[in-house]
């Protein structure tokens, strides 16, 4: 019997809806079997979303390369979606909501805002999505897990180091990261207390240079023109400290103690000037945090117990250990705390249980 036009239209419409749903959820293309957090068998691989703060510097680019390589070599994962908000809160909220709508299995996120992302990320958790908050943390205890280094310790160590190097007396300039970001805030919080709370230390100027070398160079060039005496540089990032050194070189100003980070271009400049008395300290946000976050996400998806907080030990380069970390044969934009062996990742996760 021939179907009516209305029935044909309804059947076709239903088919379109089903196809769209399958496209959103993903189709089994590799025949891999894995488990969901509820313990049910899932015939296709997982869809993982990574939402960084932005993709505007070499550190973020290297972390992206790390997670792309890890996903490529893991048969449990069907797809990695990079949801880059370019530092915009509303964009990141929309990207996460889109991931929820498309039935992503897990979201790994560096939150642009510690408060504005809370509702949508809690919504994701309630929808059954595994949510791993990496590095830039939000104010919620409902996430599946948080993976981070202690930036307040980063802050205290570097502030005290610079004050000690200056003998508690001198004029200092400050290069901060991305305004409004929790990592930026936490790194500066204790250092600010130490520097501004030391009677003989004067903070001449401070700016947000977004952890970018070019912006740091612009700021330091203007400061060198404005201030005949600068005795120290407190900086949140290796690229920014590289920019500071290059501007000191251009201005033919004597090198002063500077806080850095494990950016290879900076480590090369540190090694170049070390014999002339240049000194630094470089605690680091390791690029392997994204790999730890991915492993925590996979364990949660497989129904395994994971710690609510994974505090990653803070790696550090000093004057004494510089030669162990500087990589003369690698590009300037290489970050030396790059990858971590599976057994070391397992130890960090296990130690936090």
UniProtKB/TrEMBL annotation:
Coiled coil: none annotated. GO terms for cellular component: cell envelope. One of its GO terms (molecular function) is carbohydrate binding. PROSITE patterns: PROKAR_LIPOPROTEIN. Residues 48-304 form the Periplasmic binding protein domain. Its main location: other. InterPro entries: Peripla_BP_I, SBP_2_dom. Pfam families: Peripla_BP_4. Belongs to the bacterial solute-binding protein 2 family. This is Ribose ABC transporter. The lineage of its organism: Bacteria, Bacillati, Bacillota, Bacilli, Bacillales.
């Amino acid at each position: 019997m021939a179907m009516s036009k209305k029935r044909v239209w309804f059947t076709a419409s239903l088919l379109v809806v089903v196809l769209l749903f399958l496209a959103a959820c993903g189709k089994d293309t590799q025949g891999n079997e894995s488990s969901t957090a509820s313990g049910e068998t899932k015939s296709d691989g997982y869809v993982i979303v990574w939402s960084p703060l932005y993709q505007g510097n070499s550190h973020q680019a290297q972390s992206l390369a790390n997670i792309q390589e890890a996903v490529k070599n893991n048969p449990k994962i069907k797809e990695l979606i990079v949801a880059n908000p370019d530092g915009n809160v509303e964009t990141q909220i929309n990207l996460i909501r889109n991931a929820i709508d498309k039935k992503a299995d897990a979201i790994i996120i560096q939150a642009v805002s510690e408060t504005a992302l809370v509702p949508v990320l809690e919504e994701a958790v309630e929808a059954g999505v595994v949510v791993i908050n990496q590095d830039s943390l939000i104010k919620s205890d409902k996430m599946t897990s948080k993976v981070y280094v202690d930036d307040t310790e980063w802050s205290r160590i570097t502030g005290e180091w610079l004050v000690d190097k200056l003998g508690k007396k001198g004029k200092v300039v400050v290069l901060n990261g991305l305004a409004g970001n929790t990592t930026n805030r936490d790194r500066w919080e204790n250092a600010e207390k130490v520097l501004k709370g030391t009677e003989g230390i004067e903070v001449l100027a401070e700016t947000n240079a977004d952890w970018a070398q070019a912006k740091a160079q612009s700021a330091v060039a203007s400061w060198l023109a404005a201030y005949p005496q600068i005795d120290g540089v407190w900086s949140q990032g290796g690229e920014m400290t590289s920019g500071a050194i290059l501007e000191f070189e251009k201005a033919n100003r004597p090198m002063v103690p500077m806080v850095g980070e494990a950016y290879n271009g900076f480590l090369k400049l540190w090694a170049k000037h070390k014999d002339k008395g240049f000194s630094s300290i470089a605690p680091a946000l390791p690029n392997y945090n994204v790999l730890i976050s991915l492993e925590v996400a996979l364990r949660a998806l497989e129904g395994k117990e994971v710690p609510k907080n994974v505090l990653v030990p803070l790696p550090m380069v000093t004057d004494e250990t510089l030669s162990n970390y500087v990589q003369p044969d690698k590009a300037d934009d290489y970050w030396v705390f790059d990858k971590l062996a599976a057994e070391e990742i397992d130890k960090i996760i296990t130690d936090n249980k």
